[in-house]
Amino acid sequence: MPQELFLEFSNNTLLPFLFGEHNTHLSHLEKKLNVSIADRGNTLRVAGEEPAVRQVENILNALYRKLEKKDMTDISIADIDAQLRFMDSDKSTDAPSGGDERRSALAIRTKKKTIAPRTPNQATYIEMIRQKDMVFGLGPAGTGKTYLAVAAGVDMFLQGRVERLVFCRPAVEAGENLGFLPGDMKEKIDPYLRPVYDALHDMLPFDFLVKRMETGDIEIAPLAFMRGRTLAHAFVILDEAQNATTMQMKMFLTRMGEASRMVITGDPKQSDLPGHVKSGLNEAIEILSGIDEIGFTRFETKDVVRHPLVGKILKAYDGE
After folding, report:
1. Long-range contacts of 198-205, Cβ-Cβ distance < 8 Å, separation of 24 or more
2. What's the confidence (pLDDT) of residue 309?
């Protein structure tokens, strides 16, 4: 049933953040929910079908409260989409307000920014990392597997719950060979580890990061460098695990030492290993799925939090 609703926001200084530059946030809601939104100063007129109008009301009120409490200093289209995803999840579980509370409770605060889950699966992933000693994050690119794992590790490190952060990836991908790349070993492997560097720079001040890397408290290395080690009191991430062989995966998993946490991320469908070589990630999923202490979070294309076009591209390639 069509409905018209008026929303009023008392703090005018927050409206540019809530409405977006040139009202881009309101335009986005109009397209997503098929409603009409007109602004008159600090008052909005929302018209459309009743469920959609109520969604607009709940989303804008929730984001406005966060701005008031300074839980957020800015709002993006991605934040609006996150509210929509959690509301859709709430509807399926009959929990009309639980999603927003859950997001807030799971927010990770680093030295440079606060990171909150943007999909229900991301929230489950963070919960699992906090509860279990070993977690597999599985799914397509752009779902936040690596970024959230790094954030969780940084959070535990800053709280003193682990003494070291160790990040590694298989160094050779897509048929390339390190021996043919220019430079010394660090220059050869750095491009493969760039996503981890980028995530860390997002969360930690440059001077702090450099100092911790110099002391070895934060280590970024290729997977082969893990052989023969025992990683105790550490938060350890193996990224792009689909490109690890069976022997490499077994070697990595058995590096786990006292009071350590491990997160293994990858896309089982995207291995760059030669066709005759079985992915160690796929085998590990088969072998370890029955162990209660190990958590598995499976992301889908709907969890992609990059540009909306990325999700459509992935669906097209999957034939959906």
Report:
1. 199/146, 199/147, 199/150, 199/151, 200/150, 200/154, 202/112, 202/113, 202/147, 203/110, 203/111, 203/112, 203/113, 203/115, 203/150, 203/151, 203/154, 204/110, 204/111, 204/112, 204/154, 205/111, 205/112
2. 75
